[in-house]
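Predict the assembly for these two chains.
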Amino acid sequence: MKQYLKEDAWSIIEEGFDPANHEISESIFSIGNGYMGQRANFEERYGGSSLQGSYMAGVYYPDKTRVGWWKNGYPEYFAKVLNSTNWIGIDVWVDGAALDLAACEVKDFIRELNMKEGWLSRRFTAVLEGGKEIAVEAKRFVSIVRHEIGAVRYTVTPLNFSGELRFMPYLDGDVKNKDSNYEEKFWVEVEKKAAAGLSYLTVKTKKLDFHVTSAMAFDVLKNGQALELSQVFSEREKYVAAEAAVQAGQGEAVTLYKYVANVTSRDHGLGALIEAGTKSLLAAKEAGFDVLLREQAEAWAEKWKTSDIIIEGDVSAQQAIRFNIFQLNQTYSGDDDRLNIGPKGFTGEKYGGSTYWDTEAYCVPFYLSTADSGIARNLLIYRYKHLEKAKENARKLGFSKGALYPMVTMNGEECHNEWEITFEEIHRNGAIAYAIFNYVNYTGDKAYLSQYGFEVLAEISRFWEERVNFSAAKGKYVILGVTGPNEYENNVNNNWYTNRIAVWTLEYTLEVLNDLKNNEPGHYEALAGKLNLQDEEAQKWRHIIDNMYYPYDEERGVFLQQDGYLDKEIVPVNELAPEHLPLNQNWSWDRILRSCYIKQADVLQGLYFLGDRYDLETKKRNFDFYEPITVHESSLSPCLHAIIACELGYQEKAYEMYLRTARLDLDNYNNDTEDGCHITSMAGTWMSIVQGFGGLRVQGGELVLHPFIPSHWKSFSFKVMFRGSRLQVNVTENSIIVVNETDVPAAIRIYDQSYTVGAMGEVQAQRSAPAALS
Amino acid sequence: MKQYLKEDAWSIIEEGFDPANHEISESIFSIGNGYMGQRANFEERYGGSSLQGSYMAGVYYPDKTRVGWWKNGYPEYFAKVLNSTNWIGIDVWVDGAALDLAACEVKDFIRELNMKEGWLSRRFTAVLEGGKEIAVEAKRFVSIVRHEIGAVRYTVTPLNFSGELRFMPYLDGDVKNKDSNYEEKFWVEVEKKAAAGLSYLTVKTKKLDFHVTSAMAFDVLKNGQALELSQVFSEREKYVAAEAAVQAGQGEAVTLYKYVANVTSRDHGLGALIEAGTKSLLAAKEAGFDVLLREQAEAWAEKWKTSDIIIEGDVSAQQAIRFNIFQLNQTYSGDDDRLNIGPKGFTGEKYGGSTYWDTEAYCVPFYLSTADSGIARNLLIYRYKHLEKAKENARKLGFSKGALYPMVTMNGEECHNEWEITFEEIHRNGAIAYAIFNYVNYTGDKAYLSQYGFEVLAEISRFWEERVNFSAAKGKYVILGVTGPNEYENNVNNNWYTNRIAVWTLEYTLEVLNDLKNNEPGHYEALAGKLNLQDEEAQKWRHIIDNMYYPYDEERGVFLQQDGYLDKEIVPVNELAPEHLPLNQNWSWDRILRSCYIKQADVLQGLYFLGDRYDLETKKRNFDFYEPITVHESSLSPCLHAIIACELGYQEKAYEMYLRTARLDLDNYNNDTEDGCHITSMAGTWMSIVQGFGGLRVQGGELVLHPFIPSHWKSFSFKVMFRGSRLQVNVTENSIIVVNETDVPAAIRIYDQSYTVGAMGEVQAQRSAPAALS
């Protein structure tokens, strides 16, 4: 936990330079545009601790896996998003001395991430050897309009002397991943040129043959006047640079504009990369920094129009939620269905930038509500495209049919290797099925089912069909040897959530199947043929639905997380001595496993997903039982608890849970922000407000709201895109106002009252007291 | 499975050279003396596939551990027995051409491991370039009398030409471990000298500072006459050699005798190593090869006197059991309580040469019966000396008291890192306690308990006390999250064997405690003080004993391997399609885990250890239930099944089980003999005959026999050391004859009849028909 950032409604601001915070700031002040991303590394060289990170979405490396004891079925590699060519770099010398903030006095340092307009800036005064002072101002962004373009404006002003300023903008592909398993470098050089006008560098990955071409051009101005400078060019392996020197008088501002285009073989033929990069680059340079920046601000304004949340009366909360929305929108733009959302986005290497079930469980709801439905749809298409790989994965594990999606993946292949997770955390299949339901339920886009969704559902159902077995002892179907969402239990039998989501998948698949059969017989026939669907399969699914075993405690009236759960000693977390927490840093794994403590929502994950199938009393009994023994050591945990707490009217608990994620990275709550930001859990924070405090649900094609407001907030409002309309929901202590910002009328329900918000219309309602269950 | 060795009662013989078998033979023909060991690598260079292996007992390396995903509590290193200085090497040139069996024609190759006398020999004719033929004869051994000494006799005879023979005996410390985790070499040079008379090399390990000095001297004879030859010496890093050339006429035999002493810093001060090595070496050279060999044969005759098993009517079985006894005696000599028995002994690198519970469960019974009781006692002392480390290990895993012995260890510290084994296969603690009982029961040496045993028992009991928890749901104590002996289930609850052996430990500890209290109050007081033993502890242990939960199936009357076992689909192994077997090569780990299939005896391990507490009907029900679903994919599995099958009168099953281990390595049954021989499971084969076919038990201070004889054996006999006497037990179809070879009378029971076999006396009994239960 570390609070050093200034509170501000629209910006993240760091005042004063403390090298101890630098790597944390490098994560927090990251910029990205869904196509590429960049940690907040300094442009000029920096001798202190730093994690250099330039990432190109979808450009990854199958790093040789590391494992102690091999198990059959483990994947051969762990995919990792690549640290790519450093394109921001500008070495700076002042009268021959290199500028390096680790080697000089730094005054008046201020760093700002402007979330409203989407740029990063930095200002400081450096006191160099001999007392020479320079003022530096740097601003950069990656364009969300021209996604291959990044631009930097870098200004140096001698404050108390006149002298030579030398700049060396460069492209450096000789970079490595900090998390390389065998200290390997992943890039080799293909081609380069350093020359007047434009320099470029093409590198490719040692495996998979991803090519990235970075092209750069730059201008230097003094006091706003462009200079014609003689340049010195240098090249070395995977590196090109240009160097130019300027004589600057005291108080004269010298500005370097660096424009870079990064293009990859994912989008261009190998022979066309340099041309594509050059074209993009020259167009951007032609437009110029200020135009590009204006485009950027306008495009961000559009994003905020559909996704902003406004909190009145709590700047800290306001800043936090905007930071989360901003990072989510920087990470995934939804225009490329080959991409997904790594748990750290473009802010670090951890988790390899791969796809987890976080996407379906947390991110899909965010994009569904805050952007055009095509964005979330592309996240679904991503999995559809991986269906064949998921079938192969199931075969590899010995299943004769069906699909098991990977726990961690880049291209559809599994790349995690802990047997208890890789092979056993199969509930992920349920979340992927659920996302299809969620999407269709939210958007009403039923055509998705016949086009893509049903195939995925059917193959997942086939997996469940084969994965269950009939227990003669219980006279029921059971699912043995799984790990549920609570990864603090491994290889358990009959994890309630897994059993439940498996049966739910079968139910939904049958529902869709029957719907298609009855309403789209042509589509149905085609799909049945393609899938070679047998009547007996549907019968078997029905039989499993009707005969699944669910562990349940009659006495307490709670679903049991797994068969043996009640054999554990159950002691609430608040009775544990504080030095035991967090458990994952203080306890051996076996101790954690046999303890009652829960890492993240498990039974409650089911009660969240299938919320309309369980009454409040049931939710309350389970929440009251499980929440006190939950340690929330996954960043994905508190948000779900916040949402259910809201439903139960547990306002204080809800707000406590909300606080645990809201400023997770800004306040470095888990002491790990230097590794990158918790991007996917940011969607959870958004959910806490919109689904929790706002009580937003979609039921029967209606948008349902059931808001409450944390006691010290004056008001909060959020945007919701819903079936063509865009609504702003404003909640105060006494009122709820829904404004329709579009011409499309929307059906909504507030508490138990239904309304239609007409084109550009507004609806007002009284805010009710919360449900009082306790 | 590969059968290429000739059957012989006293020797292992390979006729003809097939490079494809060479690494298997390198394992099988290994020689050792408990202090050092040597794979059957060739003396001369060999360009084909080979696993070079020279091992010094107790000289190990803490290799940086390899793990995919770190868990709290994992050890930092994996200890591995070191491949040490190659001391057997003699490069040979014939008229300038190097002798290399991978590069010439080989005729009349014969390799012999003479188990009666303890040596390895090899003869062959090599046809070199130009058709020059030489006859080569090599014989070597490591002395079990002078344990630091190895000797080689190497004779070359030109058969169809006269020419120059050049020999270069050397010491090469520039060796590596094949299983080095990071391709590292573990040795650095300390000192060396290559000179007339004597050369030496001292190397030390990069970590832990083990020093090994090897000193060599040699003689060359032609036609039996010693030659004075000029020598050329060479040195390079970690390497010394001497070179001598001899002109040999056709038919003239030139013999090189190479003597080596290997001494280590485990036994000598660092400053005294060279002197110690020199002294040993010169004494050996002075004695000469023939004297050393005679000493060796005589010493092996003594070993066979106490351990031989004779099988009449089955040479294959005779050879196999002698091979097993021979290898066990080569591996562990019992005179150094810092040493133990690696699963591969000195025959390979696999399992790191570390100590497993194999020692207590399998090896202790062998040494108890076939050698002086001090030998087995030293295996117990080994664990006693590790008690403090075992307590530290328990603390590390979060226990406030008690001791958890490591699953895999060299010096008492854990060095395995799979959580499901390292942290959860805690039944090993039970086997270590059981070995104490076994030793005292067998030898009657009750003094061991007050001196060493009770401390270990008490600390293990304390561990169990804290490791159980009271299940409110069951109203019983439970043990959650364990892996039993069947490693094909992980992280299960209430593994019957673990629960049972835990309670047995508590019972036995209390029995010993009360016995000490009543009969050795002085010792008891001292121990209670040392251990700070509290009265409540004994009360707690009693409470656990009286209230432990054991999973049980009323319907079948069988103990359940774990709580959820009956939820599995139970299909006998013989109904599995053969291509699925072995499961560990064909199934993913999760599939194995949720299957019913059992790797090795689990419930039956308990019924074996605690055999006198369960009636035959109970054993039969459990055997009938579990054996058909056991895949015996551990080499330790079949022997226990053989023993219980014998008890139940299942003669065919017993013999089938016996066959699965008897020639495991000789016939390369598991296709892994090239990695080394299955040394610890060899003790299991011995148990199959002595405890299985012989029915040997010790009950109430009496040796009990209950023999049967496999149908096609004429007779079998085995030796048993028992409380000062040495008995030979001879079993034929109709009779049992027990001969006392000592002056100490022995009380024995044959079937239900008690006898005393007087000094040098004999007892005869009729052999009964087997119990017919089925």
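DSSP finds 20 helices and 33 strands in chain A. Chain A touches chain B through 48 residues (CB under 8 Å).
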